[in-house]
Amino acid sequence: MTILPSGIPLNVSRINLSNDDLETCCTFPDFTSLMDLNLNENKLVQFPNLTKVARTLTMLHIANNRIRSVPEEYAILPSLLELDLTCNELQQFPNLTGMRSLGTLMLQKNNISWIPGEFLKSADLAYICAPRQ
Predict the structure, then answer these.
(1) CA 20 to 30 Å from 51, out of 33, 57, 79, 110?
(2) Is this prediction's pTM over 0.85?
(3) Where are the beta strands (DSSP E) in the chain?
(4) How far does the signal peptide extend, from start to end residue (predicted)?
(5) pLDDT digit string (tens) for 78-100?
(6) What is the pLDDT of residues 18-64, one digit of tens each?
(7) What sign for the dihedral angle of Cα 126, 50, 119, 93?
(8) Maximum distance among all alpha carbons in the chain?
């Protein structure tokens, strides 16, 4: 599936596309109230285009995919509280400095070797689960 089913109301608050064998992800329309997006257990290799939902999204679950990087333009999700990138193919720590509200970050089972100290100083994380160093 690369196109969202038609008829989804623009004021939807939660979308679950987990276990859909997605290899590429569609661009999300301007969902005015989307807060929770679940893309776990797919075959995504690229981070989804979230520009139209960036200001409302609070939970993003993209675990168990094949994502190798988080493009800097998508690292600014100002309302994001929880980000799950567990079990992907990340080689380096993504630039998340624009995610000031981020409270939970899950990065285990990736190929990340270090987390920049400046991120840890600037973030308001209550919980981080990262690869063992």
Answers:
(1) 110
(2) yes
(3) 14-16, 36-38, 59-61, 82-84, 104-106, 127-129
(4) none
(5) 899 999 999 999 988 877 777 88
(6) 998 888 887 788 899 999 999 999 999 998 888 888 889 999 999 99
(7) positive
(8) 46
